Amino acid sequence: MARNATSLQLVQDATMERLAAATLSKVGVLVPPWVILGAEAAAGAISHAMWGQAPAVTWAAVGCTLGSTALTALTWAITHQRRLIGRLHATATTAAASAWFTTATITGLHPPVVSGALFFGGATLALSWNIRTVIRHTNGDSEHEGGDPLGSLFARAREQAGLKGTKVRATEVTEHKVKGQMQLPPGEKTADDAIKAADRIESGMQLPPGSVIVARDDDRADRAHITVSDPRAIRQPIAWPGPSHPGGSIDKPLRIGLYQDGDDVEYRFVGHHLQIMGRTGSGKSIGGAWNIIGEIITRRDAAVFSIDISKDDQTMGPLREGLHRFETGKAGAVELIRAMHEAIPQRTKWLADHGYSDWEPGCGLTYWYLHIEEIAKLVNEIGGEDEERLGEILKEMRSAGGSVILSLQRADYTQIPTLFRSQMAKMCFGLSDPDDVKYGVSARQRKADVVPHEWEDHYPGMAYLDARSIRATHYAMPLRTYTWGRNSGEARAAMVAHAAAHPARSKQVDDFTAALARPTGPAPAGQGGQGPADGAIPAPGLGPAGGGGHEVRDEREEFAADFAELLADAAQLVIATQHASPAMLQRKLRIAWTDCLRLLEALQRKDIIGPPAPGGDARPVLVAADDRNAARLIEHLRTTGDVVTAALAASDDPDPALSAGPDDAVPQPTPEQADALRVDGPMVKLDPAQARQLVYAWLRHRHQTGNPTFTATDDELTAVRHQTGNGRGWIYKVLSDLTDRGVLTATKSGATRAYTITDLSPLDHDDAERTAA
Fold first, then answer.
1. Rounded to two decimals, what is the model's pTM?
2. For residues 326 and 306, is the Cβ–Cβ distance under 8 A?
3. Are 259 and 379 found together in one domain?
4. Spatial CA neighbour of 645 closest among 754, 753, 729
5. Which domain holds residue 198?
6. Which label site among 180, 345, 392, 719 has the fewest CB atoms less than 10 Å from its CB?
């Protein structure tokens, strides 16, 4: 890497300049006594020539005597703060010089006694002052120099920096940095004082801005670490050197960049979460996501699940083959969050059952990374319950062997919940506003006055990193992440090749990871733990094709059930608030604008709201807040949903090339469409307990047949549901509850969720309790 100057050269050059200046100053302080001696001799000769003859000499003698007495007394008075020897030396010098001047004025310089006093006495006084000067400077230099360039350089700057009494000695000298230990005056200064004075230290040392990094010494409050390095060293792109530990454990540090002092950024990313923040163009996606995840995918015991509903393949697309799952749509992202949320308690239980308090290398579980690019958009799109699930993932995932990586441009409360930000270690790239710094850096980085807002667009890829494994000397030091090519095309090609060299499908993973994984590319024959060609786990009993048309039907049924839940929530909101608008639903339910419009259309079909007024979005609410039938109406919506929405979900998208006019014949619906439009169930529903007992009886019968696997749209189960009088949403709730209780195990392949009967004992326990009651 090209460098303008090494840190050692910076220190040496600055020190040599200071030493040269010091040498000149030392020589210069020896000259004044001799200059004064010569000036006194000249002044005595001139004074004798002008006033050395009678009668003027009498008055000159009187004047010189009075002046000598006054000067001697003044010298004694103004040197009262000096030590006694210094006070006597200064006063005696003044008295001797003024007495000789008086004598020279009267007699001139010719008498031997006068000239001898000047030669021997004056020279003695001048040398005495030279000796004092030399001793004083030698003692002062011995405090800080002693051949130490850093100590010598700092000694000249400490008073200007407000650190009088502080000493520095070098502890490590390399080509790229000079490290030292700073000893502060005990009881007077602390490391925080030195940290805040770093810019003044640079000024006093005459070094480039950003050269000095001061950090606390965790063992002593009166000490600090000081590092001098060349900030210009990382202002040019640094080529990616390749993976640091390919095939190794994720417990080994990731090498993701280079610090200003030339040290590798070695980041052990296990047991905590990371927030990556930076403005557009700061390099946070390439520098953060590519370098961190590019290292993670090379480790044998790690899996990355990535979500980016904002930029699709633009950022994470080149890494796709190395990811165990990559979701670019809301539905897939929500499904991944729910599945991961459900799996975390199972993983923690597995660890406990196998004698582990936390994840450890070799424990048998693959370490998980959930990466969410542009998290702010995802939070805005998903519903409140899924946002809560994501928050619970952040709180619980570390115990289950996993970490979360969140990337965004500004981590304030309007973008993500404060709870999310509080869980994060911080990696901050360039910012445009100094007010944003507090959202992107840690508390101790703020105390160190880090300045990511000063990089602007000049140095993309530069960042600060503060996390559990970062050394105390480096949390406030700028770093530069690696670049993958000279331009975006070359970089993407390099990342695609890197991901292909470390494909997710080639890793042995645990069953929990295999259940969530959807790695890209065909799985090699005989590869354990990965399942079919697309990396998904086949649903038992569905055959090699996963059910064909039955899979599509199951997806549509599940969509209709989910929409029924959302429709009931929307109805409850508009009735309670007596306000119906897409903006209100989007704000309360945290869903997309198009989904809000779809809900309002469904509520209008149900006569809960009216049509919007011309030129506005708000609609009148037709059901009063105190209506006694409101609760029954909401529950009816929750169980039956909206048949029109179900029909739309059951129909494939039309061919855009086809069109129809008002006079064209309307074709009859297909049997499948007619079934979707039909309202299920009798007019009267069974009691909830009786309805569940019918399902339980069917489960026991199904288990006895030796075919324990089924789907929610199984014909036999659908017939049972019709007998209960409940809708599709109800059966999904029952199956979900039974899955949580361990009666069923749910697996998913593509859009199909299959359930397998695994343990009927909880149902027997319910029967026993009901009988006892």
1. 0.53
2. yes
3. yes
4. 729
5. 149-234
6. 719
